[in-house]
Amino acid sequence: MKYTIALLAGDGIGPEVINEAVKVSDAIAKKFNHEITWTPALTGACAIDAVGVPYPDETHEICMAADAVLFGAIGHPKYDNDPTAPVRPEQGLLLMRKKLGLFANVRPTFTFPSLIDNSPLKRERIEGTDLVFLRELTGGIYFGEKGRRDGGETAFDNCVYTRAEVQRLAKKGFELAMTRSKKLCCVDKANVLETSRLWRETVQAMEKDYPEVTVSYEFVDAVAMRLVQWPNSYDVLITENLFGDILTDEASVISGSMGLMPSASVGEHTSLYEPIHGSYPQATGLNIANPLATVLSAAMMFEDAFGLTEEAAAIRAVVNKSLEQGIVTEDLVAKGATAYKTSDVGDWLVANL
Amino acid sequence: MKYTIALLAGDGIGPEVINEAVKVSDAIAKKFNHEITWTPALTGACAIDAVGVPYPDETHEICMAADAVLFGAIGHPKYDNDPTAPVRPEQGLLLMRKKLGLFANVRPTFTFPSLIDNSPLKRERIEGTDLVFLRELTGGIYFGEKGRRDGGETAFDNCVYTRAEVQRLAKKGFELAMTRSKKLCCVDKANVLETSRLWRETVQAMEKDYPEVTVSYEFVDAVAMRLVQWPNSYDVLITENLFGDILTDEASVISGSMGLMPSASVGEHTSLYEPIHGSYPQATGLNIANPLATVLSAAMMFEDAFGLTEEAAAIRAVVNKSLEQGIVTEDLVAKGATAYKTSDVGDWLVANL
Ligand SMILES: CC(C)[C@H](C(=O)O)[C@@H](O)C(=O)O
Ligand SMILES: CC(C)[C@H](C(=O)O)[C@@H](O)C(=O)O
């Protein structure tokens, strides 16, 4: 098969980790007789520098024309300390999500046996953790009307959801639960928020269409606790945009493998795959960044966007092998062992596929 | 001195744990020659049952007339599964906060050496943790306009903050930081929300009045991560209502001493002290609930509301002693040891003051 993949390397270590994911993807394509055309495009701080906006129209067209988008990371310290600057990389991210209609952010959290002791949590608390958050990504308080009144003395942000928005996200949640343990948790704050009550009643009404799925409803504050206490008690969780922002980041640190976690944002027009880590500006150009989260994001892309299960499994298997054999960058290296460079890890993966 | 304390025992185990806190407070008062008048009042499910509303006017008047409020817990399972029921205990809580002007929720998280191994986190991650959240409690999305349009198909919640609301909360934060390590963290989502940008600019403008305090600004998602990774890197944190709801609950489980954490809500007219745990309906009437969080809330009341530092220290000392000697309820009992009853723990504390 032939695939066109938009390649948004972004800022900081983005280009370096993307490079390794491309190498591995090309090797897999060759092995399984596919043809990949990569179409690079600018986004983030590098796009602001080049053309003045963080998500140029040209980039949008390249994404729309592609079968999937592979994304690195964006962000640069020169924009960090001023969230009121007129143009910022994050705006590009939000615009991209909205314009590409990426309404569901899929964030798995799972453990790698060889990394479990890196977790801040005790082994017995996290063993077996394998959960997935579906975060709504194009609605809620992120995109509602916001502004000032009273001469700037009062600020407001509106959180808005429609039943249709909840339904399409929840549908993905039910479907995902059906392929897993058939447990779905709807995270809301229905004891306080009207939008949460809409979420809850909408999901409740959908239960009858998925009689095999057991649905629980939990308040966001309770989930923030239980995620630290018993992360392995969760399976599929669905939630709105802001709760998802907070909880998925919280969840990402429990497994001890944050630097390895992939993610997907799926939507109406296309889907986008990216590591959950940031652009680590301090490491830019040093060839030390861990490329595995991006490589695993490519695996998600093969499986979910192209339906290529075997290809995805092959990538995951070689990543596991590299971890077991200690072919890892400095963030994961065992005491006394030598760290591999970003590009060495990629080369090793390609050679061992 | 003479003190009048409104006593809101609430639901579930509330009356039982309040009872022990009253015993200990009375013993302290006797020892230090104070006179306490307790004025009981209804709130929560028991108030709904008795008079149809969760925060009756009479209760409000009793609180307004008191020097402080000691609060147990509210909530009953018959209201749990229906956040859309017309009358619910939580509404009483929100109304009480608003009417009493309790704008700052003070939530310390600290470790007890003897309980540190109860934590889901590894010992080396939490040793030395001693942080305090100041959560804004009467503004934000909890109290903004909320409702439906489009025949119920669209729901909205408005998040609103004024500069004055941010200032009075932040002032408490700066003042608290001055009494501790002079480190203040402002938690917001200023890269997305206009209310967060108001928070940030307001706090930034106040920095010059507290030149000794070092202020950091962190995004809520990053804090949700770092709280699990390095809780002992924080000291005083200030944040808005909803972020505070999520983060204080998350923080409460890291120390392994959740059942012992007290809290205060301070405001314009009075201040209120309560354990952070809930009403544990399953344990109601069994005389097994842990009263220590409520006893420690009374200690906070002596110190913060009445300025009685020595009295507070005496309560904390005897609580520590009970923990060290294993005079604890079943939730904390060591393997093989016998659990004490709620009232036995209280009796022991009184006898050992
Ligand atoms: C950068 C920021 C706008 C973004 C978000 O809040 O969605 C990020 O935190 C994320 O989760 O992808
Ligand atoms: C019961 C609920 C309304 C309340 C809140 O969200 O404030 C509770 O979670 C709390 O933190 O005191």
How far the N terminus sits from the C terminus of chain A, by CA atoms, comes to 19 Å
- Tell me the greatest interface: A-B, 61 and 60 residues
Percent of residues of chain A in beta strands?
15-25%
Q: Treating each run of at least 4 consecutive H or I residues as one helix, how many helices of chain A?
A: 12
Bound molecules: 3-isopropylmalic acid
The unreliable regions of chain A are none
The quaternary structure here is homodimer
Write down the CATH class of the largest domain in chain A: Alpha Beta
Helix content estimate of chain A: 40-55%
Mean pLDDT of chain A: 96
Count the domains of chain A: 2
Kindly identify the CATH topology of the largest domain in chain A: Isopropylmalate Dehydrogenase
The helix/strand class of chain A is: alpha/beta
Adjacency order of strands in the biggest sheet of chain A: 2-1-3-12-11-4-5-10-8-9
Biggest β-sheet strands, sense, barrel of chain A = 10 strands, mixed
CATH H-tier superfamily of the largest domain in chain A? Isopropylmalate Dehydrogenase
The H/E string of chain A reads EHEHHEHEHEEEHEHEHEHEEHHH
Shape of chain A: globular
Which second-level CATH architecture of the largest domain in chain A applies? 3-Layer(aba) Sandwich
GO cellular component, one term (chains A, B): cytosol
Cofactor (chains A, B): Mg(2+); Mn(2+)
GO molecular function (chains A, B): 3-isopropylmalate dehydrogenase activity; magnesium ion binding; NAD binding
Organism (chains A, B): Flavobacterium muglaense
